[in-house]
Write a structure and sequence with these properties.
With 253 residues, this protein is α/β, with parallel strands linked by helices. The chain has nine helices and seven strands; from the N terminus they run E-H-E-H-H-E-H-E-E-H-E-E-H-H-H-H.
Length: 253
């Protein structure tokens, strides 16, 4: 039975708010396959973080009917820049990690994202995402396999894109826009700064506490208004406690 070279693409509706972020992708062919998966399943923009192997011609050759995804790709130097405007960030990994991230199956991914602006991170083909890459993730999604746990980059994106496409998001009326990852990170960094002036941090690393709070914020799904309120509380707390700024001066804001 012959397989059509260009299967029809699903309408671009439902999951346009999900950004596919490739972190240091090494092979242009895989980038093209990813672009085709995005187009076929109606996902949002392709973002690449510091791609050493990007060849646009090769990528387009591997992305029939999806050249617009390759041409419209956004490039950033860091993961933080790539996900700054997202409300939820999910990493992909097949191995156990140092910190206790919530782990989702492909079928649980849609429910976790909902209607929030999201980014799904995929790591380089040789090593996957590092713990540093995952520092702004609120959860990890893992694709079940049998004996061999590693998947090709294009395959991994296709599996998750198809899982999302199979479940269109429920879009209840939202009264407030969700807080972006950048807003959440700002609030958490300020809270960690305050905690560092107390006994709570004794025996704990700032990285560990930051990660715990970041995952908590992800489950809470705060709005921008709520995070702004939290920031106001934290600024007043810091002023009251007169916690020194990094430059040695007291907080007076």
């Amino acid at each position: 039975m012959s397989v059509p070279l260009d299967p029809p693409r699903a309408p671009a509706e439902g999951w346009e708010h999900v950004q596919v972020t490739l972190v240091r992708p090494q092979q242009a062919g895989n980038i093209g396959t990813v672009a085709r998966a995005i187009a076929n399943h109606g996902l949002g923009r392709l973002v690449m973080v510091d791609p050493p192997g990007f060849d646009p011609d090769r990528a387009r050759w591997m992305a029939p009917e999806a050249h617009h995804i390759v041409n419209g790709a956004r490039f950033t130097a860091t993961v933080a820049d790539a996900v700054a405007d997202r409300a939820v960030v999910i990493g992909t990994s097949a191995r156990k990690r140092r910190w206790d991230w919530p782990t989702l199956s492909p079928q649980e991914l849609a429910g976790f994202i909902g209607d929030r602006p999201a980014a799904i991170l995929f790591g380089p083909e040789d090593a996957g995402l590092s713990n540093a890459d995952l520092s702004l993730c609120q959860a990890i999604v893992s694709i079940p396999t049998t004996a061999h746990r590693s998947l090709n980059l294009g395959q991994a994106v296709t599996v998750l894109a198809a899982a999302l496409r199979a479940t269109l998001p429920q879009r209840p009326a939202r009264t407030e826009p969700p807080a972006t990852v950048q807003m959440q990170d700002t609030a958490i960094a300020l809270l960690v700064e305050i905690l560092e002036g107390s006994d709570y941090m004794r025996g704990r690393s700032a990285e560990q506490v930051h990660g715990t709070l970041f995952r908590l914020f992800g489950r809470a799904r705060p709005s921008q208004k709520e995070v702004i309120a939290v920031l106001g509380m934290l600024h007043k707390m810091r002023r009251t406690l007169r916690i020194a700024r990094p430059d040695g001066s007291d907080a007076t804001d």
